[in-house]
Amino acid sequence: MQKKVSGTLLAIAIPFFVVIIIPLFIVTLFEVALRIHPQLIDQEYVNYVFGKQTRRDSGIFEYDPDLKIYFMKKNFYTTMYANGYVWDHQTDARGFRNPTAKETSDIVLLGDSFVYGHGVNQDQTLAYFLETKGYSAYNLAQQGDNAYSEMYMLSQYGLFLKPKYVFYFYFTNDIKDLFMRGLDKEQMREFIKQPMESISFKESTNKINFPNTLSDKFYIGKYLKFRKLVLDKKKKSQSVDTDLGWKFTKKAIEYMAYISKQNGVEFVMVPIVKDTFEDYQILKDFSSEHNIAFVETLDMNNENYYLQNDGHFNEEGHRKMAELIETYLQTH
C-alpha cells in the first residue's frame, strides 16, 4: 500500500517538477541575469529598459491620439539614458526643454532629438549656447519630432513668442519618423493637396499616457514588450514611402515659411549634415526655389561633433552649431 502511495505521489511530483518548477527556475534565472547584465540582449534593449522616451507614467511623453502627436510633459524632471549617456531632462510650464517658459523670444528652434539635446544636459545645448552669446532663444524641439509635429509646434507655440527668426533643423531620419509616428499615408496626401490658407491645427485637448503595469517591474516583462516594439517598428519601417515623405515634408516646410512670413518672422532652413549630402542638396535647392533662407552647415560633417556610439551632437557639436547660427545672424 505504501509503495502504491509513494508511486502515485512520484507520478504527480515528476510532471509538476517538469511543468512548473523547471520553467519557473529558468524564468527566474533569466530575470536575474537580465537585472545583472541587461546587455545580454543588446544595447537597444538596455536603452528600452533605462530610457524614458515613452508615454507611460514614468516616461517623458503624453500622446494625443486625435492629432497623432507626442508632447513632452509639463514641468517634468527625470534622468534620461541612451547608449551609455545619462542626462537631466527638465521641461518648462509648456512642456519644452527650457529653463523657463518665456513670453517672448527672438529665436525659436524647431527640430528633433539633435536640437532637443539628446545625450547632453541643458547647459550643453544649442539653445543654451545661443543664450550665452546674447540671443534670446526658445527650444521647441522634441525627440522623434518630424515636419508634421514641427508644423504644429510652430503654429501653436512658436509664433506666440513673437520671434524674429525661426530656425528649422532637418535630419535625414525625419522622413522615416513621419511614418513611425504621425499621420497615415492618406492623411499625408490630403495635406499635400490643401491650399496654404486652408491649413489649420486645433488645440490639443486629449493628451493621454499609459499607467505602468506589473510587467514593467520585471525585466522579462520589459523584454517581451521590447520584442513587440521591435516587431512593430520593423512593420512600420516597411511602410515608409520616401517619395511621399519628401512631398509631405516640402509642403510642411512651405507652410512653416508661409505662416512665419505672415507674422513678420524670418524662417530659416538648417540641414544637419552628417553623411547626408543628398538630403542637404535637396533642401538647399528647395530653399533656393522657394526663397527660403538657408544656413550652410557642411562644417558639421565632422565626427568630433557627435557622441560616440550614438550619433547625436555632443557639447562641441552644439557649440559649433551655435557659432554657425550666430554667423548667419551677423551676416543677414
UniProtKB/TrEMBL annotation:
InterPro entries: GDSL, SGNH_hydro_sf. One of its GO terms (molecular function) is hydrolase activity, acting on ester bonds. Pfam families: Lipase_GDSL (PF00657). Signal peptide: none annotated. The chain crosses the membrane at residues 7-30. The keyword Transmembrane applies. Keywords: Membrane, Transmembrane, Transmembrane helix. This is SGNH hydrolase-type esterase domain-containing protein. It comes from Candidatus Ryanbacteria bacterium RIFCSPHIGHO2_01_FULL_48_27.
